[in-house]
Amino acid sequence: MRTTNPELPRTLGELRKSAYSEQRLGARTVKDELRANLICKLQRGETLFPGIVGYEDTVVPQIVNALLSRHNFILLGLRGQAKTRIIRMLTSLLDPFLPYVAGSEIHDNPYQPISKFSSELMLHQGDDTPIAWLTPNDRYVEKLATPDVTIADMIGDIDPIKAARRGQDISDELTVHYGLVPRANRGIFAINELPDLAGKIQVGLFNIMQEGDVQIKGYPVRLPLDLMLVFTANPEDYTARGKIITPLKDRIGSEIRTHYPTALDQGLEITKQEAWIERPAPIELRVPPFIQEIVEQLAFSAREDKRVDKRSGVSQRLPISVLENVVSNAERRALRNRESMAVPRVLDIYAALPSMTGKLELEYEGELKGGDTVARELIRVSVGKIYDKYYEGVNVSNIIQWFDLGGTLKLDESVPAEQMVRQLGSIQGLMEKTRALGLGPNEPNELRASAAEFILEGLYAHRRISRSEERGFAAEERKPKESREEPSSGPRPPRRQYN
């Protein structure tokens, strides 16, 4: 919203005498403003993009270089890599207030107006010309590129209705309806998914990026706009839906590649920050660290799996959505069983498949198996990797022996924690092994049940025990060893010939 701060100058005369003098604002462009404020933040050691994790040594330095160079730039990366969030945070580098000629659709600089409206207003009113103010959010315009976007949407067009209402000639500049780009004057204009923009519309951006002006249809009008242009794109889009035309790419100052988290800890921090876990509920919600790690490992495992399309990528939204669904399933169980605490189990991760399958673009081999099967196998792989983190080198032979002697255990994700602990407690040595997860004997049943079930799932992931829908957990079937006896030296039967 436009600010109405009473302490700010309200007329051009007051503005000239204030801190917003012509000497300070007259010829300063928005790129100069971004650069100056960025330098101040760097000198103070401030965090430039709070909440953006994993880009501190890669993407952020490149964005800083682009801004210091006064470049228009593009963030190029797969889905779910915080591209849109980053460009929206650029507003933090804008001044808190910026004056413009009140009523101007393109936010004219009071000291250097470029529209006929502002020029005529200032000619007639002089120092009494009214001044309004913009906040950083007012100066950010974002457009999602779609194939149906027109030049009129982006640049502007003749508005015969405006001409009729004002009784003006249709060739008058005052009859122009400005598009998104002129309305973003003196601010940041962002285009998401740039390749989806039709080629002829991309051509319309040439003059804006190089000469800094636009021309509207056949009007002899030149608008030297002051803009910072930023774009986002997915590399998949270059072949799947469209492309960025070469002359436009040539005019973009910096191409910055984004990426997924490179370490599990980074992914965990992002998911914890974004997932809706701290939610109002009549019961206590506790998510064990190993559950969070399994959910996060899902994304890493999927990105490495050959059945998942690497060109499409696996969005960071996957672990965020899965974790929210996992917690909700545990919450539903606790509410139904009238328990005071909800603690997710590995079984809840399997119950969260609907939040996972839609985020995986599969290759041909994956399509043959089906998304549900691939997702289940990814969960199994992820459980196995996190199990190794806690139980590598830990002796669990007594647990495996219990199953080898004929023991079976079928678990239901809906049963209360107390009942599940009784079931799991029948397995020799199982509950004692939960200490490796930092749990003592006095922990709530909800946590103990989740930890013990994780151990069984880990053994199943490594094929130390088996699991089926009918029997549940059971002994792993051992393949019979091949006979090592020497073959008979007697005559062999003749080999049958087939025509």
Q: Would you mind describing this structure in some detail?
A:
The chain is an alpha/beta fold and 499 residues long. The chain folds into two domains: 30-69 and 71-96 and 135-257, P-loop containing nucleotide triphosphate hydrolases (Rossmann fold, 3-Layer(aba) Sandwich); 264-475, no CATH class. 41% of the residues lie in helices and 11% in strands. The protein is built from 23 helices and 15 strands. The protein has helices at residues 12-16, 22-25, 30-44, 59-68, 83-88, 116-125, 151-154, 160-166, 180-183, 199-203, 206-210, 237-240, 246-251, 264-274, 289-304, 317-336, 346-351, 354-357, 364-369, 371-391, 397-404, 417-425, 445-461, and strands at 73-76, 98-101, 131-134, 140-144, 156-158, 176-178, 187-192, 213-214, 223-224, 227-233, 254-257, 284-285, 341-342, 465-468, 472-475. The protein has a five-stranded parallel beta sheet with strand order 4-7-10-1-11. A hairpin with an 8-residue loop joins strand 8 (213-214) and strand 9 (223-224). Helix 14 packs across helix 15 (289-304). The chain is elongated and about 95 Å long. The termini are far apart. The model is unreliable at 482-499 (pLDDT under 50).
User: Using DSSP, what is the number of strands?
Assistant: 15
The helix/strand class is alpha/beta
Q: What's the structural domain tally?
A: 2
> Which strand order do you get reading across the main beta sheet?
4-7-10-1-11
The helix content is 40-55%
Quick check: average pLDDT? 87
Major β-sheet, in short? 5 strands, parallel
Q: What is the structure about, briefly put?
A:
This protein is an alpha/beta fold. The protein has helices at residues 12-16, 22-25, 30-44, 59-68, 83-88, 116-125, 151-154, 160-166, 180-183, 199-203, 206-210, 237-240, 246-251, 264-274, 289-304, 317-336, 346-351, 354-357, 364-369, 371-391, 397-404, 417-425, 445-461, and strands at 73-76, 98-101, 131-134, 140-144, 156-158, 176-178, 187-192, 213-214, 223-224, 227-233, 254-257, 284-285, 341-342, 465-468, 472-475. The protein has two domains: 30-69 and 71-96 and 135-257, P-loop containing nucleotide triphosphate hydrolases (Rossmann fold, 3-Layer(aba) Sandwich), CATH 3.40.50.300; 264-475, no CATH class.
